[in-house]
Amino acid sequence: MFQRIKQLRQAGVVGINARNNRYVMPHNPRALYALVDDKIKTKQLAQSVGIAVPELYGLIRSVGESGNLDTLLQDRHTFVIKPAHGSGGNGILVISGRRRNTFFKHDGTIIDIYRLRHHIENILGGVYSLGGQPDQAIIEYRVKFDPVFNSISYHGVPDIRVLVYRGIPGMAMLRLPTKRSDGRANLHQGAVGVGISLKTGMTTLAVCDNRRIDEHPDFGHTLVGLAIPGWENLLLLATRCYELAPLGYLGVDIVLDAKLGPLLLEMNARPGLSIQIANGQGLQPRLDAIDEHCAQSQLFESAEQRAKLAATLFA
Amino acid sequence: MRNIHVHVLAVGLSVFSLAIMWTKVSTLGLPIMPDEQTSTWIIEAQIEFEAVGKPVIVNLDIPNSIPGYTRLDESFVSRNYGLSIDIVNKDRRAEWSVRRAKGLQRLYYRLDLAADLTESGSKKNVRAPAPPPIPDYPEPFASAVQDLLQSSRDQSADVFTFVSQLVSNMNNDLTDSSAALIHKGVQAGTEKWVQRITYVLAGARIPARLVRGIVLTKSNGRTPLLNWLEVHNGEQWQGIDPLSGSKGYPDNFVRWSVGDDPLLTIKGGHNVQLHHSISQQPQSLVNVAHERAEAMESTMLGLTLLKLPLATQNIYRILLMIPIGALIVVIMRVLIGIPTFGTFMPILIALAFRETSLLWGIGLFCLIVGSGLALRFYLEKLQLLLVPRLSAVLALVILLMLLLSLLSHELDFEYGIYIGLFPIVIITMVIERMSILWSESGALEAYKTGFGSLLVATITYFVMNNNYLEHWFFMFPELLLLMLALFLWAGRYTGYRLNELIRFRELAK
User: Fold this and answer.
1) Angle between helical axes of B424-464 and B322-330 (0-180°, round to 10)
2) What is the residue-averaged pLDDT of chain B?
3) CB-neighbour burial class of residue A75 (10 A; exposed 0-12, middle 13-18, buried 19+)
4) Ranges A219-228, B217-226, B371-380, B420-429: which has the least confidence
5) Interface touch B496/A21, C-beta < 8 Å
6) Chain A closest CA to B508's CA: distance in Å?
7) In-domain check, residue B451
8) For chain A, what is the radius of gyration of the CA atoms?
9) Contact, A18 vs B495, CB < 8 A?
10) A87 with A168, same domain?
11) CA A96, CA A267: separation in Å to the nearest integer?
């Protein structure tokens, strides 16, 4: 056991207790949590500074308003319904097809308008929100993800998580839904995590269930050595999010749309630590390097400069 | 910086709480182990006499302050007699009186004692008594005294050795003519004997006095009072064995009265008899400590819960265990990383187990949560709003428990009846949370968390039901400050959780 502790320490692995005590608590003021926990606020903020986000189709605030569902949906065939205060990808319903009042979920199962409404009512009732408080339901644009991911993503939307520490990208990973994760890009539900080199935007290694893998468990395609298209743009977008919500320890979730490019999906004030496993590296050396950099330069750095730093700071 | 602050605060709190605890243990004798027994002594003085039908006044010397002992309680049994207690020369005197009494009379005085823990006692420097004047000894007594004093003085260095020498000379030198002369008519060891020594010592201007006391022995029953000699050397009174002349008091010597005044005087009666008897009573240390604290008028007692009404005490017995439960949850979550429903749900489940006993509790819990979960999935199909659905689950859970109780009553299981006290809301919440986790993260995660909660609750149950812990927290509520310190430390813990050692195993290369 002590052997393992020593090894992890040498690898610079950050544990949950250390993350909370050393990074989340000192760098993330509680008052700013509301900005990132409420996806509507995040969206509005992002739009106000020109950060691209999936388009908001409609907002349902109360059970009464769910009657307007038909008018909100118009004749849209694809959309996403999710809770404004959800966490861990819970409560997200992806509709990828429609025939009148019959909807097709991303995995092909059928759901009728009543069940859709029930799902919305559950969201409003706070089933998926933190602490069970009453919530709001968001209906938004369903991302048509970049064809790069077609062969390595099962049903759901793959997203890219960038950890931004004190405004500088520290680590990134690609999250791929699998059959087992039920189309969700959540690592502890069985999704695949793929480490990305900040410098090149190429995938480096992949893990599933905390174990290293080389191929996608459902498709068998190789996961290593892929290039993320428009990587510099994506990194810049992630970096700009720090100006949106100045949280020192911030997780930014980005999707790559085939037409629209990188879109900000959501932000997280206490991003998980699986990113270390996906990259096969501990966070500690990188966070230390950023701390050191910040201690040396007092100058204001633009988002472009900071995004570039990520490529140079970690050799 | 923040760390230093936390460490200083936590160390301060621990030291403070342990210091209070230590003080309580050392001065009040609050027991560290539960159910510890000690013995208290009961000394009873029985006065028997024949009244002759005239007014009766009985005076009895009773102890005031007893060095080395605390008076826990005393009582007087005296039918028809009026009672008053006076303090005469720092001794107490009980006075019974009655206008008319005839026949055999019996009066009792009863005293409860506990031995002091600290040796020191009250060694207040009492003002030294004036040296007695040299008595006008009659001849040939005078020369015998002179003779004795002279020979003793030659063989001694200070007051105590002089007195020791004198006493042993008086006792042992039966061949010595002057000693024999002084001896004359007095039996060794009696009151008179001690008084005679005092009389002789006055010849050397040494203050001396008679002390009566009782030696506490294991053999219960009648015990005569022991006459002892005390001599003042200008600084303090010191006991001297009136027979051997050796310094000190017998072991377990309870000083009953001081001075030459008669122990008992009776007007209006004859055939007087006075008996003392001793008995030993086992008592829980807690009670003794409590009584001792009251007798000492100790402020420390303010920090024990023994003063509160019994019902309140019982509530605190449970309440004080809750932080211990919280400590277990902290350890499980922060140090080990076992997932649980909510933070304090396991404590509540453990409290519920207290009422059902563990195995039954776990069985009932699984049964009710299992069937509740099934019902919840059925309700899911009906597509109900959240709050009405929760309420529906609640109603069904209560119905389920009712059925179980009825069933167990029919089958003569007494455990089923306790189920009614099982906190319903907790079960309902567990069902709700578990079903959400189930539909969101899959059955595995739900089972894991459910099992984690049950495991933590079971451990918490064992810890919270521990006799020692319950005793410590009840006797020493200041230990809560120690808990606070532990929580502060846990709050600044940045090490790995046990489950992270497995989670990050790929990185440990």
Assistant:
1) 90
2) 81
3) exposed
4) B420-429
5) no
6) 5
7) yes
8) 19
9) yes
10) no
11) 24
| pLDDT recorded at residue B121 | 46
A211 falls within a domain: yes
Could you tell me if A133 lies within 8 Å of chain B, comparing CB atoms? no
- Is B440 within 8 Å of chain A by CB? yes
**Peptide bond before A177: cis, by omega within 30 degrees of 0?**
no
Is there a single domain that holds both residue A153 and residue A129?
no
Query: B494: nearest CA in chain A?
Result: A18
Q: Is A87 on the interface with B (CB under 8 A)?
A: no
Question: Among partner residues A8, A22, A122, which is closest to B494 by beta-carbon distance?
Answer: A22
Helix B345-356 to helix B322-330 angle (10° resolution) is 130
Report yes or no on B29 lying in a domain.
no
The reply to whether B354 and B454 lie within a common domain is yes
Tell whether A79 and A155 lie within a shared domain.
no
Q: Do A289 and A249 sit in the same domain of this protein?
A: yes
Instruction: Kindly state whether residues A24 and A172 are assigned to the same domain.
Output: yes
Residue A179 and residue A201 in one domain: yes
Q: Which residues of B touch A182 (CB under 8 A)?
A: 442
Is B339 an interface residue toward A (CB < 8 Å)? no
Instruction: For residue B432, give the chain A residue with the closest CA.
Output: A127
Q: Nearest residue on chain B to A18, judged by CA atoms?
A: B494
Q: What is the extent of the structural domain holding B191?
A: 133-206
Name the residue in chain A with its Cα closest to that of B434. Answer: A127
* Per-residue pLDDT tens over the stretch B442-499: 677 788 888 889 999 999 999 988 888 888 888 888 889 999 999 999 988 888 999 8
Closest CA to A188 of B436, B441, B338: B441
Q: What is the pLDDT of residues B103-126, one digit of tens each?
A: 888 888 988 888 776 654 445 556
Clarify whether residues B99 and B140 are in a common domain. Answer: no
Same structural domain for residues B124 and B169? Answer: no
B10 within domain boundaries: no
A212 touches chain B (CB under 8 A): yes
The reply to whether B146 and B219 lie within a common domain is no
d(CA B494, CA A24): 12
What span, in angstroms and rounded, lies between the C-alpha atoms of B46 and B107?
6
Report the alpha-carbon distance of residue A85 to residue A129 in Å, rounded.
Answer: 5
Q: A-chain residues within 8 Å CB-CB of B334?
A: 17
pLDDT on residue B440 = 66
Are A203 and A284 in the same domain? yes
Question: Is position A42 within any domain?
Answer: no
Whichever domain contains A186, its CATH number is 3.30.470.20
In a domain, B382, yes or no: yes
Bridge partners of B406?
none
Number of helices (H) and strands (E), helices first, in chain B? Answer: 16, 13
So what's the pLDDT on residue B300? 61
Domain that holds residue A132: 55-140
What are A87-119's pLDDT values in tens digits?
A: 667 788 888 888 888 888 877 889 888 888 888
Could you say which of B386, B495, B507 has the minimum Cβ distance to residue A11? B507
Tokens matching residue A74: 């118009």
Q: Domains in chain B: how many in total?
A: 3
CATH of the domain at B292: 2.60.40.2250
B424 and B394, same structural domain?
yes
Q: How confident is the model at residue B134 (pLDDT cuts 50, 70, 90)?
A: confident
Higher-confidence residue of B89 and B255: namely B255
Quick check: B506 and A8 CB within 8 A? no
Q: Is A13's CB within 8 Å of B334's CB? A: no
ipTM of the complex: 0.79
**Residue B213 near residue B254 (C-beta atoms within 8 A):** yes
More reliable by pLDDT, B72 or A172:
A172
Q: Are residues B467 and B359 in the same domain?
A: yes
Overall number of domains in chain A: 2
The residue of chain A with its CA nearest to that of B433 is: A127
Shortest CB distance from A21 goes to which of B492, B500, B507?
Answer: B492
Shared-domain flag, residues A181 and A112: no
pLDDT in tens, B213-225: 888 877 667 788 8
